[in-house]
UniProtKB/TrEMBL annotation:
This is Contig40, whole genome shotgun sequence. It holds the Pfam family Beta_helix. The keyword Transport does not apply. Keywords: Signal. Residues 1-20 form the signal peptide. The lineage of its organism: Bacteria, Pseudomonadati, Bacteroidota, Bacteroidia, Bacteroidales. It comes from Prevotella pectinovora.
Length: 614
């Protein structure tokens, strides 16, 4: 009898959460299960829905908070996780979505495995000397469509799209002709006449353009004239800033041709054929294609926290989660011409007669769009990320877009990011001309009181070189402290937008005790720390900035440890260690205090900069 009672009690406990407020998820679970430790759910979305229902019904499990436990393993999404106002917690009862400590990492992935590799191919466009070593696989299907992608990871390493030379190598152009909308280049040694998906990556000062090639016409003198598809052709040749330079201080601007089977000639390179979708890959040394894990990304957004001005999302925490394998496909369909910081232009041109009511000296106009992001937050507060990893992502990793406040990103790592690591704040887009000073009618629309601390951001901007490690636009009371930001193609930490001395609400921003190094690897007009516009009450203090690269294809030497770009004002700048006080100034305001920086800053301050956990 006693044994029967004990068995019944044990079965009851196994079907009941270990403690109130706990929901369990595992890759081996079922979404029809009760979400207990012994009978977990299968998907994070089902767990979020269960927590939402607990809150709707005011269940006792919400007392003290809800904790969604994701056991180790891969969670391959079919659609983005969507957290909305109904998912909100409270400061005393937050919702925590966390990965298990120890064991396998908890990975929320937007990718699909690429299987069925076989060796050798019959495509005669691929160079004969490597054809027998190329492996081939059919792209997976998502829904009823072949997956077309710009990213591929093999055993966790990013493959390089087939290109001239090696990653980062470029060639100087001969001419850039806005009238004919053509770029003249040295004639490639490869016969690219049948390369229908060919792209040109253009280096233009502090940004890049990705242009889909329409036609290549040999001029017969060792040069070829290249024209491009719309909409990027008009944007590229009409916008004045930034454009390629011809016969600059250090020569002409550079380019690289990308994405043709004729260019597939180096280990680690790949090419996807159109319209078959077939993927060709030349393995690196030591890669066994019969056992590799190859991943192609399908989804651009992994998670969206999206409230409204009337009903915000609040008090949700992510802990110990890996966000991985997001896609970035836009240039496949419309190219890319960026203004700065990864913001693509939707229209731009030079004004025949300069001047706007807000800025008499303005001689160009541009309308921009925000880059895609793996994780985005809008109209929300208390949305925290702790000890998370963002890795193998096609565009922006984490984006606090609009009206986000009272949130913290701490102890996280960002690596192998196609765009910006952490993006915060408003960058007026849509129909708002980007040079017009912005001040929101509703003050809470400005991102406020966001803390970014003790994170590492590395190898960001490896697809769109004009992106940065950490970027903030129109923000107030932001703190960026004790981060290590390194190995970047452009700037490290950027705060401000608008190119304006006018009051905008940007104020009290702190950039303190960060370690920025190995930056400006490709672009110039750059700063390890970079600022724009008036930001009263702000400070740049006790940072360590070093290893400023000489971008190999720059056409001048505009690169600085700290760059106070147009109309920067309101900053106190002290105690920043750098090998020399190489600072850039572009029409700074009168309320700047800059003192005690450079190589004489004391050793203790220098060594205290960077991550708190090392």
């Amino acid at each position: 009898m006693i044994k029967t009672i004990f068995s019944s009690l044990l079965l009851f406990l196994m079907g009941t959460p270990v403690m109130a407020g706990d929901i369990y998820v595992a890759p081996t679970g079922s979404d029809t299960a009760p979400g207990t430790v012994s009978a977990p759910l299968l998907t994070p979305a089902a767990a979020i829905r269960m927590a939402r229902e607990w809150r709707r019904l005011n269940r006792q499990e919400t007392a003290g908070g809800i904790r969604i436990h994701l056991s180790g393993g891969d969670y391959r999404l079919q659609k983005p996780l969507f957290l909305r106002p109904e998912d909100s917690g409270t400061p005393d009862s937050p919702t925590v979505i966390c990965g298990d400590d120890g064991g396998k990492p908890t990975v929320i992935s937007g990718g699909m495995p690429l299987d069925g590799w076989h060796k050798g191919c019959s495509d005669t466009r691929i160079p004969e000397n490597v054809r027998s070593r190329v492996w081939v696989a059919d792209a997976p299907r998502s829904g009823n469509r072949i997956v077309y992608c710009r990213q591929l990871w093999v055993n966790g390493n990013k493959a390089v799209r087939a290109q001239q030379g090696r990653y980062g190598e470029m060639i100087r152009m001969k001419d850039f002709d806005a009238a004919s909308r053509t770029i003249t280049i040295p004639t490639p040694k490869e016969d690219l006449s049948g390369a229908g998906e060919l792209e040109m990556l253009v280096h233009q000062r502090w940004a890049i353009a990705i242009l889909r090639v329409k036609e290549m016409r040999a001029l017969g003198n060792g040069y070829t004239q290249v024209s491009f598809h719309e909409p990027e052709s008009q944007l590229e040749f009409e916008h004045p800033w930034p454009q390629p330079v011809i016969d600059g201080e250090k020569g002409c601007s550079s380019f690289c041709l990308v994405n043709a089977p004729q260019l597939l000639d180096a280990p680690g390179e790949w090419y996807q054929d159109y319209p078959s979708g077939r993927i060709y890959y030349l393995p690196r040394e030591g890669e066994d294609m019969t056992t590799v894990e190859a991943i192609v990304p399908v989804m651009e957004t992994l998670a969206s926290v999206d409230g409204t001005r009337e009903r915000t999302v609040h008090d949700i925490q992510f802990q110990n989660i890996t966000f991985a394998h997001s896609a970035w496909t836009r240039p496949l369909y419309e190219g890319l011409v960026t203004l700065q910081g990864g913001f693509r232009m939707t229209d731009a041109y030079k004004l025949q007669k300069p001047g706007l009511p807000e800025k008499a000296s303005l001689e160009n106009q541009a309308w921009i769009a925000r880059p895609e992001a793996a994780v985005s937050i809008r109209h929300a507060s208390g949305i925290d990320f702790k000890d998370c990893r963002f890795v193998h992502l096609g565009a922006t990793a984490l984006d606090y877009q609009l009206a986000a406040s009272r949130s913290t990103v701490s102890g996280c790592t960002f690596s192998d990011i196609g765009g910006t690591g952490i993006l915060v704040g408003h960058f007026p887009d849509g129909g708002f001309e980007t040079h017009v000073p912005f001040k929101p009618l509703v003050s809470s629309d400005l991102c406020d009181a966001i803390t970014i601390t003790d994170n590492e951001v590395s190898d960001a901007a490896n697809e769109d070189w004009s992106c940065v490690g950490i970027a903030a636009g129109y923000v107030s009371n932001i703190e960026i402290s004790h981060n290590e930001v390194h190995h970047l193609n452009y700037s490290g930490i950027c705060v401000g937008w608008g190119w304006t001395p006018r009051e905008s609400g940007m104020r009290n921003n702190r950039i303190v005790a960060n370690y920025v190094h190995d930056f400006a690897r490709q672009l110039y007009d750059v700063g390890g720390i970079y600022t724009l516009s008036s930001q009263p009450g702000s400070e740049i203090k006790n940072n360590r900035i070093e290893d400023l690269h000489k971008a190999p294809y720059a056409t001048n030497d505009r690169a600085f440890y700290i760059y106070f770009d147009e109309a920067t004002d309101g900053y106190t700048v002290t105690g920043n260690w750098c090998p020399k006080e190489l600072f850039g100034y572009n029409q700074p305001g009168k309320n700047m205090l800059i003192k005690g920086n450079g190589p004489k800053v004391d050793k203790a301050t220098k060594e205290a900069a960077g991550r708190l956990r090392r």
